[in-house]
């Protein structure tokens, strides 16, 4: 209401609400609204489960499929897929992050398999329990005893190799040639990088736009949007690109190769 009383545009209201959401999440100990609202959802499920057996699964970073319906299938672009698409389309080749930070990614079809396995397992054993219980499972692809955790530098290397050998073709038929990815150590260094490499070009483009009677309006807006998007994504995903732990809930000395016994 305060924003509307000051004649704020819908775009300004939307941006302010996004910032408020992140502030609210951080106030309660969560890095962003994505993880905060997921935690709220879990609390509601457990609070209203009553006599039902509640099963909560917490996958790590979900990515495209391993096999089904075919390798690489994905619906929409979320989490790390956004960075892959922006890089492949030539819109951005820089972001903050530590090359040695761990990215425990898991294909979406493996997450679905885990969900089905959990349901079947608990359905088979529900008669053995005197009362309904709630279960929480963490789903990941990395373990120190089985395979080396995937690092950010590994993902970047795979992105570069893939789009070099399989370049993106735009709607105009133009082949996009990707450059090597640049990782920056902080938000401050990211802003400095943008100031040095992109803002001068944007200023020149704006000057040409004025001289040519706003011929480049759309181009200027697109560049400004990409810059704002990169900075916002950097703020949102900062906790994940500087992560050094492994998302496991068991002791490595008691590791068992099967999460569920069917």
Automatic annotation (TrEMBL):
Domain Thioester reductase (TE): 10-115
Superkingdom assignment: Eukaryota
Example GO BP: long-chain fatty-acyl-CoA metabolic process
UniProt GO MF annotations: alcohol-forming long-chain fatty acyl-CoA reductase activity; alcohol-forming very long-chain fatty acyl-CoA reductase activity
EC number in record: 1.2.1.84
One Pfam family recorded for the sequence: NAD_binding_4
Reactions catalysed: a long-chain fatty acyl-CoA + 2 NADPH + 2 H(+) = a long-chain primary fatty alcohol + 2 NADP(+) + CoA
InterPro entries reported for this sequence: FAR, FAR_NAD-bd, NAD(P)-bd_dom_sf
SUPFAM superfamilies named in the record: NAD(P)-binding Rossmann-fold domains
Annotated keywords: Lipid biosynthesis, Lipid metabolism, NADP, Oxidoreductase
Functional note: Catalyzes the reduction of fatty acyl-CoA to fatty alcohols.
Family, as annotated: Belongs to the fatty acyl-CoA reductase family.
PANTHER family the UniProt entry points to: FATTY ACYL-COA REDUCTASE, MALE STERILITY PROTEIN 2-RELATED
Annotated protein name in UniProt: Fatty acyl-CoA reductase
């Amino acid at each position: 209401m305060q924003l509307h009383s000051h004649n704020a545009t819908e775009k300004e209201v939307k941006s302010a609400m996004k910032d408020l959401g992140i502030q609210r999440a951080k106030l309660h100990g969560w890095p962003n609204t994505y993880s905060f609202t997921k935690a709220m959802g879990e609390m509601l499920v457990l609070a209203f489960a009553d006599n039902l057996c509640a099963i909560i699964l917490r996958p790590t970073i979900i990515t495209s499929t391993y096999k089904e319906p075919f390798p690489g299938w994905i619906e929409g672009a979320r989490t790390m897929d956004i960075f892959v698409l922006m890089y492949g389309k030539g819109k951005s080749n820089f972001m903050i992050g530590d090359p040695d930070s761990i990215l425990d990614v898991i294909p979406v079809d493996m997450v679905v398999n885990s969900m089905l396995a959990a349901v079947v397992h608990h359905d088979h054993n529900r008669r053995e329990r005197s009362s309904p219980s709630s279960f929480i499972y963490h789903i990941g692809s990395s373990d120190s005893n089985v395979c080396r955790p995937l690092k950010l530098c590994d993902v970047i290397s795979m992105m570069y190799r893939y789009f070099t050998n399989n370049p993106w073709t735009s709607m105009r038929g133009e082949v996009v040639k990707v450059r090597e990815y640049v990782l920056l150590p902080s938000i401050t260094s990211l802003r400095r990088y943008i100031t040095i490499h992109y803002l001068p070009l944007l200023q020149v483009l704006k000057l040409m736009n004025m001289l040519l009677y706003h011929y480049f309006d759309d181009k200027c807006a697109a560049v400004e949007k990409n810059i704002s998007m990169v900075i916002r994504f950097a703020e949102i995903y900062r906790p994940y690109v500087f992560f050094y732990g492994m998302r496991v809930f068991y002791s490595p000395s008691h590791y068992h190769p099967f999460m569920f016994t069917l």
